[in-house]
Specification:
Blueprint lengths: L4 E9 L3 H12 L4 E4 L11 E4 L2 E4 L4 E3 L3 H10 L7 H4 E4 L3 E4 L6 E3 L8 H8 L6 H15 L11 H7 L4 H16 L8 H12 L8 E4 L3 H4 L1 H10 L3 E3 L6 E5 L2 E5 L4 E9 L3 H11 L6 H9 L2 E10 L10 E4 L6 E4 L8 E7 L9 H15 L8 E12 L19 E3 L12 H18 L1
Parallel strand pairs: 1-2, 1-13, 2-10, 7-15, 13-19
Antiparallel strand pairs: 3-4, 5-9, 6-9, 7-8, 11-12, 12-13, 14-17, 14-18, 15-16, 16-17
Helix pairs in contact: 1-10, 1-14, 2-14, 6-7, 11-12
Length: about 450
């Protein structure tokens, strides 16, 4: 390790979306900020990676129009040129389609009306649902919109929906896929409190809030790489291949140790996942008053996301940008067609399941066999590979909001940022961005 110590006012551990989002308002206010990260590039769990001849995202991410802070930040870091959302994002009105083996596809069409009429008429015009099904869905939707539902304490979403007289068919075909897509958590474990929060923000605020936004280029181009340039243009520093091994207190500053360099800072933002955060905090203090925070971080559990990339021959056409499936291992198929990789699709399997125990060959074979059932005209893929994130998100389980920590800890000038903090959002890009921005605002208030 070098004996030289690099100094800054604020040291951020982690160059994921939360760490980058925290740095931007700080450097804008002229603060001396340094970010360190163990990886070779920014973005954390939401970035582009290279695999053989492919340059792909390490998981297929989408956004909704309600992700206002993320959209604002993307616009900010790209302000060097004339902002044009369509260069980076494809915006579509809410339009969902699910294929089933019994050939009774469920389709919710896009309806060009203001919220919540767009959602109401989307369900009224839906195919594959009976009139009784539609009434059940619209009934609970109206209660959510009017804040009629009383939730004295958090309960799992499956129990809540049964209490609201939603049939098992509706739960299985509508609510469970939405729960997995929004929370990446099994419906029997999922927090109703968090689910309703996202539903209100996305479906009932405005027509644009429910829009689906797909990345037209890779994730790193959309935000992490652009954010790095923005931060560096404002005299912030970002050092990669620097894994923080410990934090020690020294007078009114902290020393952050890595294998290569020591860093000294008055404020430290730990913008890492709860597991890494817990380790750094445990090494920092033995004070019993911090045990509650350590115990809460230790209580987090995690859910995987598995992405199977399939490169099909040129005659194969996916049709929709996003296609859902029910009753299969395959949950979502995304058209990732590009000039570099035409006819590339990604298959997303969220949350826990037996598929995580399969080897890659079995998983690829199962996925391609299932797709062949629905697309009999498709030939076999020319190539395939798997990206697994075993701890892709925290489990958005019942009462998880009760243990999610605030940005400010009880340890003087030690701060937390990450989608797991108390944003009341699930583990999404928006949750990470909100946490980082909120953390920066608290620090600026103290300055």
């Amino acid at each position: 390790m070098s004996s030289e110590i690099e100094e800054s006012e604020i040291l951020i551990i982690g160059a994921g979306w939360a760490g980058l989002s925290a740095a931007i308002p700080l450097v804008e206010q002229g603060k001396k900020v340094c970010i360190i990260d163990s990886a070779k590039a920014p973005g954390g769990r939401a970035r582009s990676v290279s695999y053989r001849d492919y340059h792909v995202d390490n998981g297929t991410h989408i956004m909704v129009g309600a992700y206002t802070q993320t959209l604002a930040l993307i616009k900010k870091v790209h302000k060097r040129s004339v902002w044009n959302e369509t260069l980076l994002l494809e915006r579509q009105s809410l339009n969902l389609s699910y294929k089933q083996r019994n050939n009774t596809d469920i389709t919710l069409p896009a309806v060009p009306l203001p919220a919540p009429l767009n959602i109401v008429f989307s369900f009224l015009f839906a195919s594959g649902l009976s009139f009784k099904d539609k009434l059940q869905i619209l009934s609970i939707g109206l209660k959510i919109k009017l804040n009629i539902i009383s939730l004295p304490s958090d309960i799992n979403l499956e129990t809540f929906l049964k209490q609201q007289n939603q049939s098992s068919h509706i739960i299985k075909s509508i609510w469970e896929p939405l729960c997995i897509a929004i929370l990446n958590t099994p419906i029997s474990q999922a927090s109703t409190e968090i689910f309703l929060r996202v539903l209100k923000d996305s479906f009932f605020k405005s027509g644009k809030a429910s829009n689906l936004l797909f990345f037209k280029t890779d994730l790193s181009v959309v935000f992490p790489s652009a954010a790095q340039k923005y931060i560096e243009q404002h005299k912030g520093l970002i050092h990669f291949n620097r894994r923080a091994t410990s934090i020690t207190k020294e007078d009114n500053h902290y020393i952050i140790n890595t294998k290569l360099t020591k860093y000294k800072a008055k404020h430290v933002i730990i913008a890492t996942a709860p597991i890494a955060t817990k380790k750094l905090l445990s090494d920092l203090t033995d004070n019993n008053k911090h045990n509650a925070l350590i115990n809460n971080l230790n209580a987090f559990t995690y859910q995987p996301i598995c992405t199977v990339y399939l490169q099909y021959p040129k005659e194969v056409s996916c049709g929709r940008t996003m296609q859902g499936f029910l009753g299969t291992t395959v949950q979502w198929v995304f058209n990732k067609n590009s000039e570099e990789h035409p006819n590339l699709i990604s298959v997303v399997i969220s949350s826990e399941g037996s598929h995580m125990e399969w080897n890659n060959n079995k998983l690829i074979q199962t996925v391609t066999d299932e797709l062949a059932e629905f697309y009999q005209e498709w030939s076999q893929p020319d190539d395939a590979f798997v990206i697994r994130e075993k701890r892709a998100t925290f489990t958005a389980s019942v009462n998880i909001n009760r243990i999610r920590p605030p940005n400010k800890t009880d340890i003087h000038n030690i701060w937390l940022a990450g989608d797991y903090t108390n944003t009341h959002y699930p583990a999404t890009l928006e949750g990470a961005v909100r946490s980082g921005h909120q953390c920066a605002q608290h620090i600026l208030a103290e300055f």
